Each structure stands twice: as structure tokens, then as C-alpha cells.
Amino acid sequence: MSTTKLNMRLWPRLWRHWIHPRQRVSVYFPVLALQQLTEQIARSEQRHTGQLRFVIESSLNTASLCHHITARQRARYWFSHLGVWDTTEKSGILVYVLFADRAVEIIADRGINTCVDTREWQKICNHITQAFQQQNYMAGLSAGLDELTELLVQYFPRKHAGVNELADEVILR
């Protein structure tokens, strides 16, 4: 593939990321709504042994785009960076949104992945993405969290009081 064709393919993605700075994306994810989602995460974790983190990244920098960094790669970065992999029961889950690409990824730790099929995660990602297509951003994340909760209650119900190992706060960058 020639450099020209490669560059022509990159331009639409570059443009999407350049027009979605954090301050513009924060309109779709107001502080109050993010606080409500944080509270919903805390309530969810009282019902199961999973540890949930949500990251909404507005866009990637130009260097990352030129290196063809995908939403999945960024999700893996955040999974590691936030220590989602480092829970006692290997029960961490990251829900990652790359807003400029309208991409949603769920990364689960090995304790959960042994029981839950990856198709379940993909189904939840698809539901969130469908809500995003209708510009129902917070409703999509909230409904996705409800689906995650039901899945985790089914496989990993809380049997005793537990420790909250990971912060519940939603990260918007």
C-alpha cells in the first residue's frame, strides 16, 4: 500500500479526533451525570464481587493516531494503568469509551474471563454503541452498567461484605 493511500485513510480519523477535544465531549457527559454513574457503579458492586472502572477518553493525540493505536489498545493501557488487573479475586472490569471513534471496549480480568464468554462483553458493547448512535450517551452507559451488573450477579454474587479495591469514579479525559 502506498504512503498516499495510507495517509488518505488516516485523515478521516485524524479529523474526528481533532474535533472532539475533552471540553467539547464533556457536554455529552455532564459532571452531575458522571457522579450519578459513579454512584450506580458503587451500588452495582454491592451486589457482586466484580470491581468496575469506567474511562471515557474524548480523543487520541496525533502521534497515537499516526501509530494506528486502536480503542482496544487504549483500553488495555487503561486496564494496566489503573491497576484493574490487580484485584484480590482477579475480578476487575474496565469499560472504555473512545468517544471520537464511538468505540466501546470491555476488558475483564482472568478471574472473570474464565466464566464469562467474550460474546457477552461484545453484546454489552454493542448495546452501548447503539445508544451512542442515537446520541443517548449517559443512558447507554447506564444501561450497559445494568447489563454488566446482572451478568456479574449471575456468575459472581456477593456472599459477604467486601472491600472496594478500585475507585468507582468515572474518568473523563
TrEMBL record:
Gene3D superfamilies tied to this protein: 3.10.310.50
Transmembrane regions listed in the UniProt entry: none
Domain TPM: 35-149
Pfam families per the UniProt record, alphabetical: TPM_phosphatase
Signal peptide start and end residues: none
Protein's recorded name: TPM domain-containing protein
The organism's taxonomic lineage, starting at the top: Bacteria, Pseudomonadati, Pseudomonadota, Betaproteobacteria, Neisseriales
